[in-house]
Design a protein that fits this description.
With 181 residues, the chain is mainly beta. It has one helix and 14 strands. The strands form three sheets. Strands 1, 4, 7, 8, 10, 11 and 13 form a seven-stranded antiparallel sheet that branches. The chain has a five-stranded antiparallel sheet with strand order 5-6-14-9-12, with no helix packed on it. Strand 2 and strand 3 form a beta hairpin. The radius of gyration is 20 Å and the shape is globular. About 3% of the residues have low confidence.
Protein backbone atom coordinates (compact mmCIF):
# COMPACT_ATOMS: atom_id res chain seq x y z
CA UNK A 1 0.00 0.00 0.00
CA UNK A 2 2.83 2.38 0.89
CA UNK A 3 4.54 1.70 -2.47
CA UNK A 4 1.32 2.48 -4.38
CA UNK A 5 0.99 5.76 -2.43
CA UNK A 6 4.57 6.77 -3.40
CA UNK A 7 3.94 5.97 -7.07
CA UNK A 8 0.71 8.01 -7.12
CA UNK A 9 2.44 10.88 -5.34
CA UNK A 10 5.34 10.77 -7.84
CA UNK A 11 2.89 10.86 -10.77
CA UNK A 12 1.10 13.87 -9.25
CA UNK A 13 4.41 15.71 -8.77
CA UNK A 14 5.51 14.99 -12.36
CA UNK A 15 2.16 16.18 -13.78
CA UNK A 16 2.33 19.35 -11.66
CA UNK A 17 5.85 20.08 -12.93
CA UNK A 18 4.77 19.54 -16.53
CA UNK A 19 1.93 22.00 -15.95
CA UNK A 20 4.40 24.59 -14.64
CA UNK A 21 6.84 24.29 -17.57
CA UNK A 22 5.24 27.13 -19.57
CA UNK A 23 5.98 29.48 -16.67
CA UNK A 24 9.70 28.69 -16.84
CA UNK A 25 9.95 28.27 -20.64
CA UNK A 26 7.45 30.69 -22.18
CA UNK A 27 6.74 30.66 -25.91
CA UNK A 28 9.12 32.81 -27.92
CA UNK A 29 6.49 34.01 -30.35
CA UNK A 30 4.33 37.10 -30.53
CA UNK A 31 0.63 36.48 -31.09
CA UNK A 32 -2.17 39.03 -30.82
CA UNK A 33 -5.66 37.57 -31.07
CA UNK A 34 -8.86 39.24 -32.26
CA UNK A 35 -11.76 36.80 -32.58
CA UNK A 36 -13.76 39.28 -34.67
CA UNK A 37 -11.03 39.68 -37.32
CA UNK A 38 -11.21 36.11 -38.71
CA UNK A 39 -8.11 35.00 -40.61
CA UNK A 40 -7.10 38.63 -41.27
CA UNK A 41 -5.46 37.48 -44.50
CA UNK A 42 -5.01 40.99 -45.88
CA UNK A 43 -3.59 42.25 -42.55
CA UNK A 44 -6.25 44.96 -42.22
CA UNK A 45 -6.66 44.58 -38.45
CA UNK A 46 -3.59 45.34 -36.35
CA UNK A 47 -2.74 45.76 -32.67
CA UNK A 48 0.32 47.89 -31.79
CA UNK A 49 1.55 47.57 -35.39
CA UNK A 50 1.23 43.77 -35.58
CA UNK A 51 -1.47 42.07 -37.66
CA UNK A 52 -3.81 40.16 -35.36
CA UNK A 53 -4.35 36.39 -35.67
CA UNK A 54 -0.84 35.83 -37.00
CA UNK A 55 2.02 34.50 -34.85
CA UNK A 56 5.58 35.78 -35.28
CA UNK A 57 8.53 33.77 -34.02
CA UNK A 58 10.89 34.47 -32.56
CA UNK A 59 9.15 37.37 -30.84
CA UNK A 60 10.15 40.50 -32.80
CA UNK A 61 9.89 42.59 -29.63
CA UNK A 62 12.61 40.53 -27.92
CA UNK A 63 14.78 39.67 -30.96
CA UNK A 64 16.02 42.64 -32.94
CA UNK A 65 17.30 40.77 -36.00
CA UNK A 66 14.01 41.37 -37.81
CA UNK A 67 11.15 43.86 -37.79
CA UNK A 68 7.47 43.41 -38.60
CA UNK A 69 5.19 46.28 -39.57
CA UNK A 70 2.01 47.07 -41.40
CA UNK A 71 2.83 48.98 -44.60
CA UNK A 72 0.22 51.33 -46.07
CA UNK A 73 2.45 52.27 -49.05
CA UNK A 74 2.24 48.80 -50.67
CA UNK A 75 -0.87 46.68 -50.83
CA UNK A 76 -2.06 43.94 -53.14
CA UNK A 77 -5.37 43.29 -51.40
CA UNK A 78 -6.98 45.78 -49.05
CA UNK A 79 -5.34 48.97 -47.82
CA UNK A 80 -2.09 47.62 -46.37
CA UNK A 81 0.40 44.79 -46.41
CA UNK A 82 2.63 43.01 -43.93
CA UNK A 83 6.27 44.09 -44.23
CA UNK A 84 9.04 41.94 -42.78
CA UNK A 85 12.64 43.18 -42.77
CA UNK A 86 15.43 40.80 -41.71
CA UNK A 87 19.01 41.94 -41.12
CA UNK A 88 20.58 38.55 -40.47
CA UNK A 89 21.10 35.28 -42.31
CA UNK A 90 21.73 32.86 -39.43
CA UNK A 91 18.18 32.67 -38.03
CA UNK A 92 14.84 31.79 -39.54
CA UNK A 93 11.73 33.89 -39.01
CA UNK A 94 8.38 32.09 -38.89
CA UNK A 95 4.97 33.64 -39.49
CA UNK A 96 2.07 31.31 -38.66
CA UNK A 97 -1.62 31.69 -39.45
CA UNK A 98 -4.38 30.68 -37.11
CA UNK A 99 -6.10 27.34 -37.76
CA UNK A 100 -8.62 27.82 -40.53
CA UNK A 101 -11.54 25.37 -40.45
CA UNK A 102 -12.11 23.36 -43.63
CA UNK A 103 -14.81 20.85 -44.57
CA UNK A 104 -14.24 17.28 -45.77
CA UNK A 105 -14.77 16.48 -49.44
CA UNK A 106 -14.39 20.13 -50.50
CA UNK A 107 -11.69 21.86 -52.52
CA UNK A 108 -10.19 25.15 -51.34
CA UNK A 109 -7.82 27.58 -53.03
CA UNK A 110 -4.91 28.96 -51.06
CA UNK A 111 -3.63 32.15 -52.66
CA UNK A 112 -1.31 34.91 -51.52
CA UNK A 113 0.92 37.56 -53.05
CA UNK A 114 4.54 38.38 -52.18
CA UNK A 115 7.18 40.96 -53.05
CA UNK A 116 10.70 39.82 -52.17
CA UNK A 117 13.98 41.71 -51.99
CA UNK A 118 16.77 39.39 -50.87
CA UNK A 119 15.11 36.76 -48.68
CA UNK A 120 14.42 33.07 -49.16
CA UNK A 121 10.78 32.17 -48.57
CA UNK A 122 9.32 28.75 -47.88
CA UNK A 123 5.65 28.23 -47.16
CA UNK A 124 4.55 25.12 -45.34
CA UNK A 125 0.89 24.11 -45.63
CA UNK A 126 -0.26 21.88 -42.78
CA UNK A 127 -3.60 20.09 -42.81
CA UNK A 128 -4.75 18.88 -39.40
CA UNK A 129 -7.45 16.76 -37.83
CA UNK A 130 -10.37 18.26 -35.88
CA UNK A 131 -8.36 18.42 -32.63
CA UNK A 132 -5.74 20.62 -34.30
CA UNK A 133 -3.06 18.51 -32.64
CA UNK A 134 -2.43 15.88 -35.31
CA UNK A 135 -0.95 16.91 -38.65
CA UNK A 136 -2.43 14.79 -41.43
CA UNK A 137 -0.31 16.37 -44.19
CA UNK A 138 2.55 18.84 -44.30
CA UNK A 139 3.87 20.14 -47.62
CA UNK A 140 6.21 22.94 -48.70
CA UNK A 141 4.06 24.71 -51.29
CA UNK A 142 6.48 27.59 -52.02
CA UNK A 143 10.28 27.60 -52.05
CA UNK A 144 11.73 30.72 -53.66
CA UNK A 145 14.53 33.24 -53.33
CA UNK A 146 13.72 35.05 -56.57
CA UNK A 147 13.70 38.84 -56.08
CA UNK A 148 10.49 40.48 -57.27
CA UNK A 149 9.73 44.18 -57.55
CA UNK A 150 6.16 43.34 -58.59
CA UNK A 151 3.65 41.26 -56.65
CA UNK A 152 4.11 37.55 -57.32
CA UNK A 153 0.96 35.47 -56.82
CA UNK A 154 1.14 31.93 -55.44
CA UNK A 155 -1.91 29.67 -55.67
CA UNK A 156 -2.60 26.09 -54.69
CA UNK A 157 -5.76 23.98 -54.51
CA UNK A 158 -6.33 21.89 -51.38
CA UNK A 159 -8.63 18.86 -51.67
CA UNK A 160 -9.84 17.92 -48.19
CA UNK A 161 -10.12 14.29 -47.05
CA UNK A 162 -12.65 12.90 -44.58
CA UNK A 163 -10.39 13.11 -41.52
CA UNK A 164 -9.10 16.66 -42.16
CA UNK A 165 -10.61 19.73 -40.47
CA UNK A 166 -8.05 22.58 -40.30
CA UNK A 167 -5.36 24.18 -42.41
CA UNK A 168 -2.41 26.24 -41.14
CA UNK A 169 0.16 28.16 -43.17
CA UNK A 170 3.68 28.76 -41.91
CA UNK A 171 5.86 31.25 -43.80
CA UNK A 172 9.58 30.64 -43.18
CA UNK A 173 11.94 33.50 -44.05
CA UNK A 174 15.72 33.20 -44.24
CA UNK A 175 18.43 35.69 -45.10
CA UNK A 176 18.68 39.47 -44.99
CA UNK A 177 16.15 41.43 -47.01
CA UNK A 178 12.56 42.58 -47.08
CA UNK A 179 9.32 40.78 -47.87
CA UNK A 180 5.81 42.15 -48.29
CA UNK A 181 2.73 39.93 -48.03
Amino acid sequence: MKRRYIIVLAIIVVLALIGLLPLFFPSNELFKRDNLAGLNGSFETADSGYPVNWAFGPNPESDDFYQVSVDITKAQEGDQSLKLTSNQSERTVAIRSVRVPIQPEKTYRIAFSVQNIGCTLKVNRIVQDASGKTNKRSDIIVDTSTPTSEWQIFEEPVVVSDDEANVVLIFLVDGPGTLWF
